């Protein structure tokens, strides 16, 4: 350690003030509601090698901590000089720094006496970068080029002067050029602010002290991260979960991990995960370590050690195996717009694997979605206005001694909601209902978080609604330690008048006057429901968050004419206690699915399909699933490989483990 503890804490406070201040600049100068209200942005400081050494906890989204600028820096293609500002949104040339095209990143080198000391970095989810649909993200896109303009790492500013050619390209490739430019300018102001404040810090403490502080904070985070990981007994722990489908078929998408833990180091092996999809459910990592693969593990560490420095050193004990051709390392030009669905499900998967070893330390599954609902309306000049109606989170998973958080899930990165007043001022829409939905949190001694229902009325003809990241419409958020699974999400048109249940939204063209009602999933419960204090059940019934019928069924709390029937309640709870409680409750749909599609069969199919050309894998997967539609017994590896041989007319790859 180069700094003494007092010096290091001073350095940490100064770095945090700079990085947090960058975020406040974006909050105060950005143009769009999704940035200034919902806070879909982030800021940080990085080493000259591209590792984040300060990532603030209190401003912006929290899920980019483990990313690296390294590949983006290398891909600029020319020397990076003082006054330059780099811009990019391309996953494939940055090893997934940019995770999909609307996420625009800028970073600026900070020099002192000609020596590169740091990078200031910011990202914003901009409103539109072209592509198939307004807001650029369609779940059914089949090619990254359908998703909008790709910007390799290029200089937005060169030696302090704007690169007008790049700015012109950006304006011509967006439906809302002024909004985009305003948000990008907010990022420029942010990194410029960081530069001036870091110079002030160097002048105050000296370059050597600042550089020592950077190195020491990273090393401290690494050391403390290893200490937390040593809580997990050495061994291998496997878990899997599912996305509902790929939006063009009903075949589930399986995400699987095996954690190999040894003395404070951990390898995350995603080899048994499904092949890349033909639609936009892919995450570009180029096989490198990536924050979106192990956000659950990061949160486990920072929850176990709340005062650990929040920087990339936390992830130094991690290594990753992500074979090429899996949906967590897809081959170009796979579409990537819905990559956050993978992030949120992988959050559940990694925590589920840790839960094999330490079930008392992890929460049940949360909603596992953050559906971004966008409304686009025509304007009189022929252009279109658009706004995020709401980022639709759902209930959080319960954990030991704590109910799940209502309306927000840990895995969402803590996006904020858009205030209704701000939304209705920005775009013609009328929000009819925005509230917690009763009976949606999984029952338990600690119940899952309640879901949200959003209902909004369309006020203009030729309006379009798009959504990304709608999940858990079939596979429920799982309950843990005897807790019940949370409820699935759903969408309804005109819920009060001839209600029509809709599928998950890709592009919806409602009529003027239609009401679109979206209910997110609820979180899973923790512990048996019969152990929940009766007064808490009664309070939720009185608050309208739980029906009397659900109180009786899930908690054994029986109401008489005007109060709880204590005798009936004691009898009901005794019967529930006598019944067998499974440690994990995955919900009926997953239980039925896995009664046929065992872990062995699913992993065998996933690995075998990677030996075939990428353009054939998804169709072959669907054919295999169709073959077993009427199957009633559990499948084996041999069953799956035999059907593959029938489909292809050749021997399947026998390298499957």
UniProtKB/TrEMBL annotation:
GO terms for cellular component: cytosol. One of its GO terms (biological process) is glutathione metabolic process. Pfam families: Hydantoinase_B. GO terms for molecular function: 5-oxoprolinase (ATP-hydrolyzing) activity. InterPro entries: Hydantoinase_B (IPR003692), Oxoprolinase-like (IPR045079). Residues 4-528 form the Hydantoinase B/oxoprolinase domain. This is N-methylhydantoinase B. It comes from Terribacillus saccharophilus.
